[in-house]
Structures are given as C-alpha cells and as structure tokens.
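Question: does this match?
>
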Amino acid sequence: MGETGPMQNTTTQLDRSRHDSIAILIPVFNDWESLARLLPEVDAALGAASLEGHVIVVDDGSTVAAPDEFGRHSYFHLSTVEVIRLRCNLGHQRAIAVGMAHLSKIGVGARAIIIMDGDGEDRPEDIPRLVAELYGQQGDVVFAARTKRTEGHTFRFMYFVYRLVFWLLTGAEVRGGNFSALSCSALPRLVVNPDLWNHYAATVLRSRMRLSTLPLPRGKRYGGKSHMRYSRLVAHGLSAVAVFSEVVGARLVIFFSGVLAILLFLLGMELFTRLYNTYAIPDWAAIATAVLILFTMQGLLSILIFALTVLGRRSQAKVVPLRDAEAFIESVLRLPNQA
C-alpha cells in the first residue's frame, strides 16, 4: 500500500488521454463494510458503461479502523482507489470540500467528478446516467432529484417543511443532496469558494452555476444505521441556509419592514377613527396593535444587527478549501488493485 504526503503532486493522476474517465469522491465515517460492498458495484457499473474511474475515499476521522481485507479486491474499471485520512472528524460536507481540494491540487484528467455517499443510498448503477446527463446538458452540475424515498413519513414531512422554509428564506429551491455529477471545468471555481466549507449543494446554488436535475430513486442502505440524527440533519439544513446568510438577512429586513408599515397604518387608522368618527373601537384593539408594533420593531432591530454583522464579516478571513484543506489531511494512501 503506497503512501504519499498530503496534497502532493506525486499522487497518481487520471489518464488525461482518456475522455471517458471520471473521478468518484466518497466521504466515509466508520462505514467500511458498506464501502467494501459499494466499490465492486461501482466497478461493475462503470464497466457496463465503458467508463473508467478513479476513486477518492475521504476517511472523515473514523473511530473504527478499516478491516484488513478492505481494499483487497480486483477492480477492472477503477484505475486507482485512494483513501485520504483526515486528522479529525469534520462532517461529511467538509470532508467533501477536502476531497475536492485534493482533486484540484493533483490535477484532474477526467471530464466529470461524481459526489456520492458510501452507504448504498446513492446507487452505483445511476452513475453512468448522471455522467451522460452532464455530457448531454453541457452544464456544470447535475444533481440526483429523488423520485422515490425510503425514509418514513415523519422524515418526509420534515424534509418538505425544510424545503419550504429554505425557499422562503433564500428564494432558492433545494435541488438535491450530495449525489451529483460535477464538470471538472467547474471545480476551480468551487474550491476557492469559502461557502463550500459549509455546504456543497447550497454553494453550487449560490454560485449560479449551470445546473440541472435528473430524477433518480434513492437506494437502500447496505447495512447499519445512519449517523445523521435529527439534530445533525437540522444542523445540516442550517448550514445550507448559512450559505445564503446575506440574502436571508435582506429578505427578513424587507419582511419585518413591511409588517411594521402595515401595523403602523392600522394604528393610524384606529387613531383617526377615534378622533373623527363615532364608531366604537375596543381599547384592546389599539393596545394589541401597539404591542405588535413594539415586537415587530424589536424583531426588525435584531434582523438589522444580524444583517450588518453578516455584511461586516465580508472583510474577515475565511476558510478557503483549496488553500486550507491540506492542514486537515493526515495521509493519502493508495490501495492495491489485485487485478
């Protein structure tokens, strides 16, 4: 098993003479059993589509060591399989950012990069379809839009609420998760974007890249349980919203300003009616309006402080994946191919 230092150009590159080569980026945390099952299926799927692949596995600070037999497989369409070991657990979004920065550093000779999870929910047989859609659309990114989900009704309802809230706050529509095909020409733009450190899909949306979706069903997990508990899912959703923090601040300021204007108009109408008309207006109506105005003004002031804080952070130093990812890499290992 060969080893190189972090982000070294000596890492084996993809064959630049092949136009049907793709890179496959897979973040993993402890789920080595699923990954060991996934890689042969990816190899078979690439072979059926006459594709060649180079796999980058980002070990996100796993607390369970990979079994000795992991990687001892014969691959016929995966030219190399590399494992990037991170010094600590960063979360799958930042693990993806580190992997993308690594690919940018070593020089990608492929036409496309596949981003996928290693638990089986992103089906290997859908990789050629994503690649074909990317080539056909000649865009920057193609996301898998789930047509059939295996989660329970509670998760589906919460996901619907999340998509609605995300649209209300940002004005953008959630187009998909991690499973996607990315054009290598778009990679340099992403790895210098600090937002990539928070959320891959949201960064693509915010960067206004040419993107499309491909309806694909979600697969079933190979085994084990997901590490994404509801608290982490909420944090994941908030990370996506944070990418649009400036937009969110502006939209909230506009909303609260509109509400305040309406309430002030109503209060003015109540005062006018009391002074110049004989209609009896209950005292509680005026009191309730005044209380709502106070709460709205407080909310508007808080949002203004939030918006100014966000805008003020523009001048502060941020994590740039291409520049800073190397600090989180402990080692880069190339697995032997028994073929």
Summary: The radius of gyration is 25 Å.
